[in-house]
Write a structure and sequence with these properties.
single chain, alpha+beta, Flavocytochrome C3, Chain A, domain 1, binds flavin-adenine dinucleotide
Length: about 500
C-alpha cells in the first residue's frame, strides 16, 4: 500500500523468508466467531497482560483485527474452513476458540508467502542480505539508515522521510529458543542507540512446549496441540498440570512453563511429554502437518508416541516504546511488530495476538505516514518510571563475551525462574562484557553487541522489578505488588537519576 504513494526500500539481513513470521504455527487471533466479540477478546488480553496493558492500545488491536483478516484474505491467504465457515481453534488463556489458521499449522508461512508475492510483484525496492547498522538522525528526527558494507568500516547511507523498523525478536539471547538465528534484537538496539525509549524489556515469554531431542534445535510444538486436547505427562506417565493450575494445560504460558520446570526438577528429567494420541491419526496429520512431518523425520510418530517437550525462549514482549501510530519518541522513526512495545501485551502476551499486532499497527503506521489518519491522544493509565542503564564497567576476569556464553548466562540467570542473586551476578558480568567489547566486526560481532546491550537492559529491569508479574518471575518476590504496577522505561540520554 505504501509503495503506491512513494518509493519504498525494503531491507532484510537474510533472505526475505528468514524471519519469525514464517515460523508461526498456531495462528492469528481475531474475534470473528459466533458469540465472540472484540470486548471478550479485550478482556482475555487484559487478563493475560497482568495489569500492564495499555487499554486503548488493546482496544485498537481487538477492534481493528477483523478488518486486517479481511485484508489478508484479499491478499490471497486461504484460512482453513470447516463446512464453509472459518475454522477457529482454542489457545491458552483465550476464553473461546478465536484463532484462525492456514495450512493447518503453517499459518505464518502462508501469510509470509502471500505478502512476499506482493512485494516481489510491486515497485518496492528489495535489498536482501543487507544489514542495517545504524539509524541516521538529526534534530531528534530519523533521516535514514546505514547499511553495513562488506569490509569493516564500509557502509551505504540512504535518506528517507520515514524509517520503519520491523526487525523482530531477540530469542538468540537464550540457550534454547524457538527463534531463528536472525532474531538478535537489532532494531531495539539500533533504536536505543539512536535515543529511542525501550520499555517492558524484562518480560520475555518462554513457550512451554518445544520439541526436546538432544542435539536438535528446539522446534515449536504449537499451543494449538493443547488447544485440541493434548495433555502433558511427566516421565512417570502422570498428568501433572491439573495440580498446578485450574485451567490445566491451557493455563497462561508462563504458568505452564514454570509448572513444567517444577515437574522436571521434581522427577529429575530434562523434558516432559505431550500426548496427543487420543486424536484420530488422519486428523493429526491434517491439522498439524508441519509438526507431524518434522517429528516423523526425527523419529517420533506423534499419532502413536509421546512428544518430548521442554520450555524455550519464544517472544520478546517489550521493545521500543511507540504510540498508537507506531512512532517512537524520535520523530519519523517507527517500529512495528515484535521489536515494538505498543502496550498491547502488558506483562504477558496472549497467544496469537502478536501476528495481529504486526498487522494492525503496521497498517496504522502506513495510514499515519500517508496522512490518512491523524494522531490520537495517548491515555495509558499505567505509570512509567524512566531509568538509565549504568555505564559499562570493566570487570576483572570476565573477558570478552561469546554468543554461547551469553546464551547460557541468560538462560540460567535471567530465564524462566529468576533470583536477585542470579540477576546481580549477570548484571556484573554483562557490564564487564560490554566494556570489553571493541567496535564490532562483521555481522556476528554486530549482532553479539546488540544482544549484550539488550541483555543488560533486560537484566537491569528484571533486577529492579521487585515482584513477580506475567512473564517475569522472581523467586525472592513471588507475588505481584501494586507498587510495581508500572512500566520500566530506558532512555539513553536521560538526564535524571535511576528509577525512583
Ligand atoms: C516458532 C514460532 C511460532 C510462532 N507462532 C505464532 C503464532 O502462532 N501466532 C502469533 O501471533 N505469533 C506467533 N509467533 C510470534 C510471531 O511469529 C512474531 O512475533 C512475529 O512474526 C514477528 O514479526 P516481525 O515482523 O516483528 O519480525 P520477523 O518476522 O522476525 O521479521 C524480522 C525481519 O527483520 C530482519 N532483520 C533483523 N535485524 C535486521 C537488521 N539489522 N538489518 C536488516 N534486517 C534485519 C530479519 O532478518 C527478519 O527478516 C511465533 C514465533 C515463533 C518463533
Amino acid at each position: 500500500m505504501a509503495s503506491r504513494h512513494g518509493s519504498v526500500l525494503l531491507v532484510t539481513k537474510g533472505k526475505l523468508s528468514d524471519c519469525n513470521s514464517r515460523l508461526a504455527q498456531g495462528g492469528i487471533a481475531a474475534a470473528v466467531g459466533l458469540g465472540d466479540s472484540p470486548e471478550i477478546h479485550m478482556r482475555d488480553t487484559l487478563k493475560a497482560g497482568a495489569g500492564l496493558c495499555d487499554e486503548d492500545a488493546v482496544r485498537i488491536l481487538v477492534e481493528e483485527a477483523p478488518a486486517r483478516i479481511a485484508d489478508l484474505v484479499q491478499m490471497g491467504v486461504d484460512f482453513d474452513t470447516v463446512d464453509g465457515q472459518i475454522a477457529l481453534t482454542l489457545e491458552a488463556a483465550h476464553s473461546m476458540p478465536r484463532i484462525l489458521h492456514a495450512g493447518g499449522d503453517a499459518t505464518g508461512a502462508r501469510i509470509e508467502e502471500a505478502l512476499s508475492r506482493l512485494v516481489l510483484t510491486s515497485d518496492i525496492h528489495l535489498e536482501e542480505n543487507a544489514l542495517v547498522g545504524e539509524i541516521i538522525t538529526g534534530n531528534g528526527t530519523a533521516e535514514g539508515i546505514k547499511i553495513a558494507g562488506k569490509k569493516p568500516g564500509e557502509s551505504r547511507s540512504f535518506n528517507a522521510r520515514f524509517v520503519i523498523l520491523a526487525t523482530g525478536g531477540a530469542g538468540q539471547l537464550y540457550r534454547l529458543t524457538t527463534n531463528p538465528s536472525v532474531a538478535t534484537g537489532d532494531g531495539v538496539a539500533l533504536a536505543y542507540k539512536a535515543g529511542a525509549q525501550v520499555t517492558d524489556i524484562e518480560f520475555f515469554q518462554f513457550h512451554p512446549t518445544a520439541l526436546c531431542i538432544p542435539g536438535l534445535a528446539p522446534f515449536l510444538i504449537s499451543e494449538a496441540v493443547r488447544g485440541e486436547g493434548g495433555v502433558l505427562l511427566n516421565n512417570r506417565d502422570e498428568r501433572f498440570m491439573p495440580s498446578y493450575a485450574r485451567e490445566a494445560e491451557l493455563a497462561p504460558r508462563d504458568v505452564v512453563a514454570r509448572s513444567i520446570v517444577a515437574e522436571m526438577t521434581k522427577t529429575g528429567s530434562d523434558s516432559v511429554f505431550l500426548d496427543i494420541r487420543h486424536m484420530p491419526h488422519q486428523r493429526i496429520a491434517a491439522r498439524f502437518p508441519q509438526i507431524y512431518r518434522f517429528c516423523l523425520d526425527n523419529g517420533i510418530d506423534i499419532t502413536k508416541e509421546l512428544i518430548p517437550v521442554a520450555p524455550a525462549a519464544h517472544y520478546m514482549i517489550g521493545g521500543v516504546k511507540v504510540d498508537y501510530h507506531g512512532e517512537t519518541n524520535i520523530k519519523n522513526l517507527f517500529v512495528a511488530g515484535e521489536a515494538s512495545a505498543t502496550g498491547v501485551h502488558g506483562a504477558n502476551r496472549l497467544a496469537s495476538n502478536s501476528l495481529m499486532e504486526v498487522l494492525v499497527y503496521s497498517r496504522r503506521i502506513v495510514d499515519y505516514t500517508l496522512g490518512i489518519r491523524g494522531k490520537e491522544e495517548e491515555t495509558s493509565q499505567v505509570k512509567a518510571e524512566t531509568m538509565r542503564l549504568p555505564a559499562a564497567e570493566p570487570e576483572a576476569g570476565t573477558g570478552k563475551p561469546t554468543l554461547e556464553g551469553l546464551q547460557n548466562l541468560m538462560w540460567y540467570k535471567a530465564g524462566i525462574l529468576r533470583s536477585e542473586t542470579g540477576l546481580a551476578e549477570a548484571r556484573t558480568i554483562l557490564s564487564g562484557w560490554q566494556a570489553a567489547m571493541m567496535a564490532p566486526e562483521g555481522q556476528g560481532g554486530f549482532e553479539l553487541g546488540n544482544l549484550v546491550l539488550i541483555a543488560r537492559l533486560l537484566v537491569e529491569a528484571a533486577f529492579t522489578r521487585k515482584e513477580s508479574r506475567g512473564a517475569h518471575y522472581l523467586e525472592d518476590h513471588p507475588h505481584q505488588s501494586e507498587e510495581w504496577r508500572k512500566h520500566i522505561v530506558f532512555e539513553k540520554e536521560q538526564t535524571g537519576g535511576n528509577c525512583s
